[in-house]
Structure formats: C-alpha cells, structure tokens
Amino acid sequence: MSTIITEKDQQAAVKTLERLIAVPSYNQPAEAGAPFGRGIRNALDEMMKICDELGFKTYEDPDGYYGYAEVGSGEKVFGVICHLDTVPAGDLSKWDHDPFKGMVVDNAVYGRGAQDDKGPGIAALFAVKALMDQGYHFNQRIRFIYGTDEEILWRGIAEYNKKEAPIDSGISPDAEFPLIYAEKGLQQSYLVGPGTDKLKISLQNAFNAVPDSAVYDGPRQDEVKAALDRHGFEYTSDANSITVIGKSVHAMMAPKGTNAVLRLAIALDEVFDFKPLDFIGKLFKEDATGSNVLGDVKDESGHLTFNISSLEINEKETRMQIDLRIPVTVDRDKLIAELSEKVAPYDLEYVHFDYLAPLYVPKDSALVKTLMKIYKEQTGDSAAQPQISGGATFARTMNNCVAFGGMLPTTPDYMHQANEQWLLADMQKAMEIYAQAIKALCTD
Ligand SMILES: [Zn+2]
C-alpha cells in the first residue's frame, strides 16, 4: 500500500496546528455570540478560515456553538467530530515555553491543545486535504464537526445535534488508537430522603471520583470509632473529629477504590437509627459494582460501576450523589426503575441529574472492521483489539461513530498537562492512518 501523506502535507499540517494553538481557547465567561468566551469563538472563527482556505465548504453557527466544514457530495455524511476548546494552561511556571505561541520544540508541536484536541483534528483535516489534492473522489460528504465545549458540558455539540441532521457514520479523533467501540452509559443522579435532627453531616465531593476521606464531627464519636474498628476501617481522629481514610480512583473504576464516605456511613448506620443510612449500611455496603442492590449487571463492556460520592444529612433532607456507568447493552430505563424500587424501602427517592447515552458500534460492523484493518496495516500491530472505555468522547453523541486515534499506544500522554506536545513522527503516523481510513471508507 503506497503512502498518501507527503512531506509537504505534513509541514502544512504542522504550520496550521501552530496557528490554531496560537488562539487560546479555554472556557471563559460568555459574551454576545461567544457562549463559552471570546477565546473559543476566536478559535472557531480561525478554524473556519483554515477550512475555507483548504477548499472546504464551511458553516459557522451564528450563535458560536459549533461549526462544520464539508467536502464531497451525496446523501450520506461521514462525520469527523473534533473539539476546539482546551483546558486552561494551569500553572504557567510548569511550562518550559509559552503554551499559546504555537511552535515546534524538540521534534514535537508544542502548546495547549497539541494533543487534545487541536492536533488530532488538524491531522485528520490534512489527511482529507491530501486525498483532495491527489484527486480522490469522495462517495459521500465528509464533514468535520467542531464542538466548542467538550471539556465542560458538551453544550456546543448538543446545539449541533439540535439544529443539524444526524450523520450516517463517523469517527472522533479525540482518544487513542486503535479505536474505542464501546463507552458505557453515564448516569449521574441523586438519592433523596427525609432529614433528621439526630445527625448532621455534609460530605461533598465530585460525582466522578471515589472519595478518599470523610470527616465526622458530630455526636457519639466513641461509638462511631468502635464501629469503624469492628470493620477494620482505617481512620484518624483528634479531640473534635474522625477522618475515615479511603483510596481515590476515577468513578469508572470505582470497584478498585476504597470509598471513605461509604465506610463512614456504614459505621454511622450502626450507631444511629436512621432508615436512609440503612440503604448503605444494610444493603449497598462497599460493593461499587452495585451488585448488592441490582445483582450482577455486566456485558462485554464490563460491570456496572456505582459510585456514591457525596452524603448530606441535615434536619431537612438526606441526599446522596451517585455516578453510574452502565454497560452498553443494558436497558437503562429498566435499571433505573429497578433502582428506584430498591431504594424506596429506605425512604429514598431516585432523582435524575444528567445522562450521556453509551457509545456502541459492534466489533463486527463494517466501520470497526475497516478501521481496525487500516490501523493494523499501518502500524504492523496485528494483535491490536478494539477497546472499551469507561470515559466519554464526542463519538457517543453521533450515530455509528467510534473514537479513532489520534494518540498511538506509544505516544507519551500530555493531555491536560503542562508542556503539552505531540511528536511530529506520531502526528505524521496519525495523518497517514486517517488518510488511509478515509480513503477506504469514503472513496470508491
Ligand atoms: Zn479532547
């Protein structure tokens, strides 16, 4: 198979990536026409200009939520879903160079967004440009779709899906090669019940992490300590409070962590007679697959994970915050109905907060098979397997879409970190893989 990407294509892609990195685009307060701040809108404007110059037809949402660039003709649309926002630079003293200059340092494109996600987006764009220059005729429309709020709440891509027709298939170059064909459904919710005047605690944590400490400064501490001792739960204490110690992991790996909030709740449940606490103490216990409540819920994408991260009890109410990662083939409505039923005897009510539908494109689909074949041919990694992820990419927001690259398994990971950079050689490899893949999928 002959190579598509030339030295010249690669150089043009690097120059353009430098240009895009030089437009800082992390979330800032909204302005007119810039719902996520001026910087992100500027990056969207710049991206549209770049695509125009390359010969794509562009459309920019007048409200500044998204844009897209298209080449080819026909009814069908193959989407390439990218995002133009980045996380902020963070502590500037940790960077060796300006994160927003846009330059090559030590054979790598350097700066915020080089890996996530400006770099992979540009690599895929210039892969298509190379095919255009070589006279390939596309048998469907190839549409680069640019989201603007991936790092926070996905409002840009939600707006796209509200205003535009669905694509037929596609890729999101915002993760790792070979490809991710399954991402669990992500449900964040509350369990809410009555309050009590006997007990007051406020353990507030992020939805998506297993809490590694839980402080108790209420009454009956000696009894609480005795309960913790009976279970062999680790804690420290002083004259005023007890701190239960756990081990933090991302919620998608909750069963591998030690949840300090659960451990404290189990101990409190043995000291205080309060029904909502029985849900944790008598039923849920410490099993973060939720199997004590819902049975063994699993499929090829793995087990259900069930993280209880926050617990608030006061005179008015009890509130637990939960993060469920639901296996891709499990019926979410049924699962939620069952959970609602199971918590009711503990005076708890299930309350929805947010949901991201799963990504699932079967391994034997034409899309996955073709992309895997190209990846193996291009890398020689014949043992590569399509991957499952507990995380979330834009691929799950679109029909028949998988996360495909742009990081190789050997690429050092700089995403969201200081000194973000992407090795030129890795970028070139990614471009070649994208070019071969789009040639295989979108030309005759
Ligand atoms: Zn990203």
From TrEMBL:
Top-rank taxon, per record: Bacteria
Entry keywords, A to Z: Dipeptidase, Hydrolase, Metal-binding, Metalloprotease, Protease, Zinc
SUPFAM superfamilies registered for this protein in UniProt: Bacterial exopeptidase dimerisation domain, Zn-dependent exopeptidases
Record has Zinc as a keyword: yes
Cofactors: Zn(2+)
Family: Belongs to the peptidase M20A family.
Protein's recorded name: M20/M25/M40 family metallo-hydrolase
Lineage start: Bacteria, Bacillati, Bacillota, Bacilli, Lactobacillales
